């Protein structure tokens, strides 16, 4: 049964935009893309089944954390999120990340498992496995024009905000920091397999992550992986939000156990 409303939002922890629910049985932790924010998941809570508490991660340096310095090391960011999640343990934690958020979610899952926390599943989207990255394709320069061109190529009209000087001044530091993190990121070797099943989502026409690259996640887990694709590009999840959340929900460990 899907909850009719999710009126409550807890902003008490700056790391998360939390949507508390009564009788929560699992927490779904969602990680934004490069330059993204927690509000990218604002439509998910009302689509999730009862018993699922959503924590949308808010990276420093944007929105309510605009005054905080951005991270420029992805492992350090993941370690900080893992520490922040200690206040929300006690229930299974399922990770979902899109694009850069996939790599952050993977690193957080690794840190939590090393600490003995239950992580029933890792769900990733729009990015190959960490050791594959962007498949050897040239990354953009970190100047404003190059980064804005990437945003425009991936998400179309979303790049319009960067054309306004005041908005660009607010948005560019976090976008640049996120791409700096990706440039510097050196993941663990795939031989260090994660003991968590992985579900991989992607757009069939994603210019940043070809469908063939999605299968690379099978190389980093010893617990099995699967790939599901949708029509569309890098941000296919916006136009297919309801269908995507339904597939995410099917794989959550609710009453009766997780879906196969």
How would you describe this protein?
Strands 1-3-2-4-5-6-7 form a seven-stranded mixed β-sheet, covered by helices on one side. It has helices spanning 74-84, 100-114, 144-155, 165-184, 211-214, 236-239, 241-250; strands at residues 16-19, 26-31, 52-57, 93-98, 122-125, 198-203, 225-230. It has 260 residues and is α/β, with parallel strands linked by helices. Helix 1 (74-84) crosses helix 2 (100-114). Strand 6, helix 5 and strand 7 (225-230) form a beta-alpha-beta unit. The chain is globular.
Order of helices and strands: EEEHEHEHHEHEHH
What's the alpha carbon Rg, rounded to whole Å?
17 Å
Shape: globular
Count of alpha and pi helical runs: 7
Strand order in the sheet with the most strands: 1-3-2-4-5-6-7
Name the beta content range. Answer: 5-15%
**Alpha-beta classification:** alpha/beta
Fraction of helical residues: 25-40%
Largest sheet: 7 strands, mixed
N→C terminal distance = 19 Å
Mean pLDDT: 90
Poorly predicted segments: 256-260
How many strand units? 7
Describe this structure in a few short sentences.
The protein has 260 residues and is an alpha/beta fold. Helix content is 29%, strand content 15%. The chain has seven helices and seven strands, in the order βββαβαβααβαβαα.
Secondary-structure map:
Elements: E1 16-19, E2 26-31, E3 52-57, H1 74-84, E4 93-98, H2 100-114, E5 122-125, H3 144-155, H4 165-184, E6 198-203, H5 211-214, E7 225-230, H6 236-239, H7 241-250
Parallel strand pairs: 2-3, 2-4, 4-5, 5-6, 6-7
Antiparallel strand pairs: 1-3
Helix pairs in contact: 1-2
